[in-house]
Amino acid sequence: MANAIRALSMDAVQAANSGHPGMPMGMADVATVLYAKFLKFAPAAPRWPDRDRFVLSAGHGSMLLYSLLHLTGYAKPTIDDIRNFRQLGSPCAGHPENHELEGVECTTGPLGQGLAMAVGMALAERHLNAGFGDDLVDHRTFVVAGDGCLMEGINHEAIGLAGHLKLGRLIVLWDDNRITIDGDTTMSTSEDIAARYRATGWHTVECDGHDFADIERAIAEAVADPRPSLVACRTLIGKGAPNKEGGHNVHGSPLGADEIAATRANLGWSAAPFEIPADIQADWATLGGRGAAERALWGKRLAASAQGKEFSRRMAGDLPDLAQVEASFAAWLEGSQKVATRKASELALEVLTAQIPEMVGGSADLTGSNLTKTKATGPFNADNYGGRYISYGIREFGMAAAMNGMALHGGVIPYGGTFLVFSDYCRNAIRMSALQGARVVYVLTHDSIGLGEDGPTHQPIEHVMSMRMIPNLEVFRPADIIETAECWQLAVQNAHGPSVLALSRQNLPQLRSSGPNLSTKGAYRLQAATAPRKVVLIATGSEVEIAVNIRALLEAQGVGADVVSMPSMSRFLAQDAAYKADVLPAGVLRVSIEAGTRFGWEAITGLEGLRFGIDSFGASAPAEVLYDHFGLTPAKIVPQVLAALEIQ
Ligand SMILES: Cc1ncc(C[n+]2csc(CCOP(=O)(O)OP(=O)(O)O)c2C)c(N)n1
Ligand SMILES: [Mg+2]
Q: How many other CB atoms sit within 10 Å of the CB of residue 376?
């Protein structure tokens, strides 16, 4: 049965003339034992909420997973999909993608993140178990990880969190082949990995990754131990290829026709490429059918459970009725409140977390700054998995990846905070949220030089614009308490992608009253020109207040100016031509104001417009001093606008 994985993997990589045969061949025995003896799954019900999660963190070994899904009877990939491995249109992408195939729990390829997402899945499992009990939620998370996944810095964050939270249902099967792309691991590391894991509260065990009985013994020990487990599986990369196994050349290129023939002879595998002998196929099918009975029993328990409906709602990702949320928002948005948008976010979160029980918050040790903790979200820890607030520690990348895992597990809507400038620490995980279509909300505060005295290390410049460049990521920069509430609503409703809320440290005046959600269209006319319109001032976040003040000065001189608030550039650009032409009429000078890089604003202002921003690093000083220093004040901007209009 394991040789079927080897054959499919080497033949698919050969046909594609690209890919990684070494890892699937090396881990074929371990994966076979895992699927045969331990993994709870049902190919006919791939989204069964109580299935075990299997994460191939070493995503380059994608053929291992595609082989397993095909052999155990998932509807996809078909054998033709596997023949088309790595070709356009095949769900068998170069690295596994969650949106392509059921059974691919998360998208992997950036090493280390699969394991870190698995921490989030294991965490979500315990959280839902606390709420819904063993009858509905009682599963494990298994990970296959390579040397690379364990070497990446994110591994330190992920296992530290998992060990601290005592996530005993997380089991990592380490492909301990002592080979990476460049060669032997002794070239780059002399770390005692098992000791490092033990130091963070993990259980560790070793096995011979090619001895079925020994593998079973080790995994059984891991399952029995209450701590998260690392199973070091000593393997040979490319196992079965007689002249290439054990060497780094088998990592990432096809074996070649001669070596494939030699491997067939060595394994006694006489079937043609992409053909599986009927008896072996039947054994895999039997194994794949085994979970159906347990799945059926679970379905009965779900139907009988008083909490069944609520559980199914959460797992489907459907929000509860938000009428109450909207009513609460309308009530507290009455009157005029001057608060920082981070504070407005806290107020919005009080309402949202009270009404949406699946929201689970947290911060990378900046709770008091991000204002992410609410009354409804008690602490989540090893003694209280029912808590809804996670102290991630100073682990931005680990937090973001864990939130991806939680969102992909389902039943949880995670949100987490840090300073906007440190989004760089977790940027690839934010990108992975977007690629995977994961509903994760990033609460990124201290969003400009407006944070003041902490200086350029803490002042984002390029961050907001560079996040706008990530496909499928909603980037909101609300201007006041009203827009913050609106953007929060849009973020929780964004079921198939992540959202960023870039929020101010400094207080901002309320600029309008509540009503229909004007942020939905990304940008709208906040104030219309009174005098004949000559200028449209387009601003985001804290700079909308500045635009309003600029407008007043211009109007006083008879220069008509609109103010457009643009909490989401991408939403605005997605509107129809008529709406865009109405907000940004032709023949009128466009002026953008944002306390960050000017790069990219040409798309809104045109080359003939004016762009006010900051293209250098910030500086340490009080916020007002910095706004003046960087020329982002009405006094400095108005003359330049008048000059552009040739009015002096
Ligand atoms: C973050 C990241 N860095 C680099 C790579 C490129 N890469 C893919 S596999 C690999 C080596 C991984 O070694 P190991 O995990 O031991 O896998 P094995 O060669 O044993 O299959 C590298 C550097 C990557 N996919 N992700
Ligand atoms: Mg390796």
A: 18
Indicate whether residue 179 lines ligand 1 (CB < 6 A).
yes
Report the alpha-carbon distance of residue 598 to residue 462 in Å, rounded: 9
Which ligand 1 atom sits closest to the C-alpha of 148?
A: 15
CA of 175 from ligand 2 middle (Å) equals 6
Q: Provide the whole-model pTM.
A: 0.98
- Distance, CA of 629 to CA of 618 (rounded, Å): 10
Tens digit of each residue's pLDDT (9 = 90 or more) over 445-475: 999 999 999 999 999 999 999 999 999 999 9
Residues contacting 158, CB < 8 A, separation 6+: 112, 115, 116, 119, 398, 401, 402
- Is 70 exceeded by the pLDDT of residue 3? yes
Average pLDDT, the chain: 97
CA distance 368 to 436: 30
- The number of the ligand nearest the C-alpha atom of 428 reads 1
Beta-bridge mates of residue 419: 445
Gap from CA of 240 to ligand 1 centroid (Å): 21
At residue 508, the 3 state secondary structure works out as strand
> Minimal CA–CA distance to 601: which of 552, 536, 550?
536
Angstrom distance (rounded) from CA 550 to CA 269: 77
- What is the SS3 assignment for 206? strand
Is 46 in a helix, a strand, or coil? coil
Whole-number pLDDT of residue 333? 65
Q: Buried b vs exposed e over 233-247: b needs ≥16 C-beta within 10 Å?
A: bbbbbbbbbeebbbb
Give the tens place of pLDDT for each residue, 7-40. 999 999 999 999 999 999 999 999 999 999 999 9
E strand map for 49-108? 53-56
- The pLDDT value recorded for residue 159 is 98
Contact 216, 240 (CB under 8 A): no
User: What b/e sequence results for 494-522 when a residue is b if at least 16 CB atoms lie within 10 Å of its CB, and e otherwise?
Assistant: beebbbbbbbbbbbbebbbebeebbbbbb
Distance 386 CA to ligand 1 centre (A): 36
Residue 396 is among the residues annotated as catalytic for this protein: yes
Give the closest residue to 416 by CA, choosing from 393, 449, 447. 393
> Is pLDDT of 508 > 90?
yes
